[in-house]
Amino acid sequence: MTTSDNNASISPEEIDRRRKAMAKAVWSARMEGFGTPDAESEALSELWITGQINHEEMENRRMALVMDHVREYGH
């Protein structure tokens, strides 16, 4: 697991900024008809919000979730 964002270095203001950014992204996706994130995606987002993983790691893990879904369901 990549952890170049150190949880101790993430200020409460940065956590708040990230939480708001993620809420905006979720809202936007819902408005575009993509639905709401599942529990795995929400947990992954929380790791980034709190600085336990960096943005690149979050995106890599999110892509892995998408690919798992495609392999399982074929779309």
Q: What can be said about this structure in brief?
A:
The protein is mainly alpha-helical. The chain is 67% helix and 0% strand. Helix 1 packs antiparallel against helix 2 (39-49) and helix 2 (39-49) runs antiparallel to helix 3 (55-73).
Listing every helix as H and every strand as E from the N terminus to the C terminus, the arrangement reads HHH
Percent of residues in beta strands? under 5%
Count of distinct strands: 0
Q: Give Rg in angstroms.
A: 13 Å
Beginning-to-end CA distance, first to last residue: 27 Å
Rounded mean pLDDT score = 89
Largest sheet: none
* Number of helices, counting only DSSP H or I runs of 4 residues or more: 3
Low-confidence stretches: 1-6
Estimate percent helicity.
55-70%
Alpha-beta classification? mainly alpha
Overall spatial form:
flat
Commentary on this structure:
The protein has 75 residues and is mainly alpha-helical. Helix content is 67%, strand content 0%. The chain is built from three helices and no strands. It has helices spanning 12-31, 39-49, 55-73.
Question: What keywords describe this structure?
Answer:
75 residues; flat; mainly alpha; 3 helices
In terms of topology, how is this protein built?
Elements: H1 12-31, H2 39-49, H3 55-73
Helix pairs in contact: 1-2, 2-3
